[in-house]
Amino acid sequence: MLEEAYTLIADGKEEEGTEMLYKASEKSVLGYIVSQYRMHESDAKSLLHDAILIIIEQINQKSVNHITKKYIVNICRNIWSNDYRKGLTRRKRFNKYCEEKQNEYTDYLNSYDILPSGLDNADELPTEWNKALRAFTVLDEKCQELVKMKYELELSHKDIATKHHSLNTVNSSKTVLRRCVKKWTELLAKMNQKVYG
User: What is the largest distance, in Å, between two alpha-carbon atoms of the chain?
Assistant: First the structure.
């Protein structure tokens, strides 16, 4: 089935080949990824999706001439390893950024005397904003980028799909962004449970 998917993609029938490649990979690789990397099935599906996009690009560039289960697993492993390494430094940078923004916000509130009655300075305000930023840091780089593109830069899904190298349709942009926002809200809920629960 993998070879058949390869042939379809190589012959220009990318949509049909991609669907077949994803179905074949999901059956043979997904369970392995979940157990090997101890991740949730939704995260494993996202990882597999990224790997498939890379494989399709490689087929189109003719840099690969066949696909095996082992090849797909290796690409997943490489993506996971890179994301893990990047995540460590990214979290440090983002935590520093959060701290700077929190300080700016605190200074702003203190300088304009707009604090609610009973509070002496902005450090006493609830930290929901800071929690949301900290939860954001845990998201992978792709999710952070997509959320920023949609909600900070206010790009349409069509613009996101054309600007982001791993997304090739408006529907994939919507799907991946929806998953990212869901992950973000779940992380925030977990953080709130730890604080209030």
Answer: 70
Residue 107 near residue 148 (C-beta atoms within 8 A): no
Rg (Cα) of the chain, in Å, rounded?
21
pLDDT digits (tens, 9 = 90+) for 77-132: 888 877 766 655 555 666 666 676 666 666 655 555 544 445 455 454 446 666 77
> What's the CA gap between 11 and 160, in Å, rounded?
27
* Burial degree of 140 (CB within 10 A; 0-12, 13-18, 19+): buried
Distance (Å, rounded) from C-alpha 96 to C-alpha 29? 37
**What is the residue whose two structure tokens read 């074949």?**
24
Are 95 and 42 spatial neighbours (Cβ–Cβ below 8 Å)?
A: no
Q: How many CB atoms lie within 10 A of CB 99?
A: 12
Q: Are 29 and 48 in contact (CB under 8 A)?
A: yes
Q: What distance in Å separates the CA atoms of residue 50 and residue 44, rounded to the nearest whole number? A: 10
pLDDT of residue 122: 46
Strand, helix or coil for residue 116: coil
- Would you call 174 helix, strand, or coil by DSSP? helix
In this prediction, what percent of the chain has a pLDDT beyond 90? 1
Q: Is the pLDDT of residue 136 over 80?
A: no
Structure token digits, residue 161: 């799909």
Among the listed residues 152, 153, 158, the one whose alpha carbon sits nearest the alpha carbon of residue 173: 158
Residue 118: CB atoms within 10 A of its CB come to: 6
